[in-house]
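Below is a complete specimen:
___
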Amino acid sequence: MGHSHYTSPSVRNSSAARRLGRRSCLNKGCGVEFQAARWNQRFCGAPDCRREVRRWQAAKRQRRRRQVEKNRQQHAAAEHERRQRRRETTARLPNNLSDDPQSASIDGPVAVDGAWSRGKALPENFCDRPGCFEPVCATCGALARYCDDTCRGAVRLVRDRERKWLRRNTYVGRAKRENEYRRAQRKAAARHQPPVHGNRPTGRSSVVDSAHSESLRISCVANKERPP
């Protein structure tokens, strides 16, 4: 499903499980919270969820392929040859078997309905979130990729999580993460530090203290180095 995903519900390494944590399935029709087994696992791995994601990927792949004129011509030629072979096979069959749709094909029974991607009323350009077949929102600027802010935020959250994981595996990323931990610890310590109770020194006392400090200064005139 795009990346190599583990579908096993159990995780062998408990420390890795604690680091990865639990996450929500990216499939729009699922949304189940599961325990991740790999850093790039995006889906829960349930059979129904896996089937829906593969259907969405197949529909996206077909839409992307049909945008090229050469691919459309090749597909039309292949369909023409397939229909021609079916007509020739039907003509060679006896009259009592030519009316039977189960025996009109070489490979097996003929599907009554067409391809599922064409049978559904799918829009020409639908959302880029797995499992979402809603049309993209209309924009006056750049081409949109998602149907609404919910799908955009879900995909952005997953990509940001994977980017941070790869970044933290480098020396620079680990150093930055340690700095973030230190800043967080200092903020937590300052937040839990008890307040200091006492009277604030006035301006007169500060003047007296500064005058007293002037009298306590040590002169360094006599402390000059002399040659031996």
The mean pLDDT is 76.
